[in-house]
Write a structure and sequence with these properties.
It is a single chain. This protein folds into 2 domains: 182 residues, 2-Layer Sandwich (60s Ribosomal Protein L30, Chain: A); 173 residues, Alpha-Beta Complex (Phosphoribosyl-aminoimidazole Synthetase, Chain A, domain 2), CATH 3.90.650.10. Helices cover 33% and strands 23% of the residues. The chain contains 12 helices and 14 strands. The protein is globular.
Length: 389
């Protein structure tokens, strides 16, 4: 398996185990002689040609993601990156890994594969931002039972688009074709991102009472809560090709597959403008605001975030999910981002600088709360008002 290929093609790892399995299940009298009549990799369900075809399809997409620091091209056993050439002085490396979850199920069933690669990148690079890191490079892992180069290339094109948005290089990846592990047409994805932050810029830092919390809008459910979303849709009796009740101009499949937003450029613009006026970023993923905000002050049990639920309007998707599934507000705020994809904690005297930088970067920040002193018995995130008016 060559990590240096952008979605590197098939090698001995996953497929060798199938040869072993076959030998155990085949009676001696049924074994075949070596030579022209013997078994091939293709007989076992693995197409080396399909893998080579995929590599050629995605090379142009990977090339478009090149950035300072990338050393060499695709095809080696590993991808190389030169931190010094990228301009770093005293960096810490930050790594993140994630997947797309059961959102893939909807993408596969509706044959809408183009956005899930963006989701994959976003789920990793947004996490790097929360440490103050600049994403440097990304690797992906695509696993399937029988490789469809055209379908896989659509996914990798999305990965490349996400990398370009985040400013990182698609440095490598791996395709695993594993017959018997996945049903026909199914696949799974994993992503791995590495970034760097100067030692003095590590986040979060010095969060304190009085700090202001800004929220950046999400584009829907992003890549979390999809097991619950699919359960609600199944019980509603709707199909993915029907108009979405909350967005009738789109099908339900399209409306639930809006890609995760990538906040890297806007977040880094805020850091460049306000410096240590930015105290921390929280990527609002599984667990919602309820679970993700407190990750910024784990070592300060006297702090709490007070969130005004009436300071933003969740996308119609969320109200439909709540009403159709009978999901109460507490569970909605734990399962979904509910319209806020990234929270930013800022010093009060830097709020205007941060807000202006975010607007200049194309964002629409809203003031959604503030840091307060946590009293005994309080939860780390306190909500005021109602999510749905």
């Amino acid at each position: 398996m060559t990590a240096g290929n952008a979605i590197a093609t098939l090698a001995g790892g996953p497929c060798a185990c199938y040869a072993a399995d076959m030998s155990e299940d085949t009676p001696k009298s049924a074994t075949r002689p070596h030579g022209a009549n013997g078994l091939t990799y293709a007989d076992a369900g693995v197409s080396i040609e399909a893998g080579a075809d995929l590599v050629e399809r995605v090379k142009p997409a990977a090339k478009r993601t090149a950035r300072p620091g990338v050393v060499g091209g695709l095809g080696g056993f590993g991808g190389l990156f030169d931190l010094k050439a990228a301009g770093w002085t005293d960096p810490l490396l930050v790594a993140a890994t994630d997947g797309v979850g059961t959102k893939l199920r909807i993408a596969i069933e509706t044959d809408r594969l183009d956005g899930v690669g963006v989701d994959l990148v976003a789920m990793c690079v947004n996490d790097l931002l929360c440490q103050g890191a600049e994403p440097l490079f990304f690797l992906d892992y695509y696993a399937t039972g029988a490789l469809d180069p055209a379908a896989a290339a659509r996914v990798v094109e999305g990965v490349a688009a996400g990398c370009i948005d985040a400013g990182c290089a698609l440095l490598g990846g791996e395709t695993a074709e594993m017959p018997g592990m996945y049903s026909k047409g199914d696949f799974d994805l994993a992503g791995f991102a590495v970034g760097a932050v100067e030692r003095t810029g590590l986040l979060p830092r010095d969060i304190s009472v009085g700090d202001v919390i800004l929220g950046l809008p999400s584009a829907g459910a992003h890549s979390n809560g999809y097991s619950l979303i699919r359960r609600i849709i199944a019980e509603s009796g709707l199909n993915f090709d029907q108009p979405a009740p909350f967005a009738p101009e789109e099908t339900l499949g399209a409306a639930t597959l809006t890609p995760t937003r990538i906040y890297v450029r806007a977040g880094r613009a805020a850091l460049a403008a306000a410096g240590d006026g930015v105290r921390g970023f929280a990527h609002i993923t599984g667990g919602g605001l309820t679970e993700n905000l407190p990750r910024l002050w784990d070592d300060a049990p006297t702090l709490a975030a007070e969130i005004n639920l009436e300071s933003w309007t969740p996308q119609p998707l969320f109200q439909w999910l709540a009403e159709t599934g009978g999901v109460d507000e507490t569970e909605m705020l734990r399962a979904f981002n509910c319209g806020v994809g990234l929270a930013i904690v800022c010093r009060p005297d830097s709020i205007n600088t941060v807000r202006d930088a975010l607007v200049e970067a194309g964002e629409a920040p809203l003031e959604i709360g503030r840091m307060i002193e946590r009293r005994e018995g309080d939860r780390p995130v306190l909500y005021r008002g109602a999510l749905f008016s």
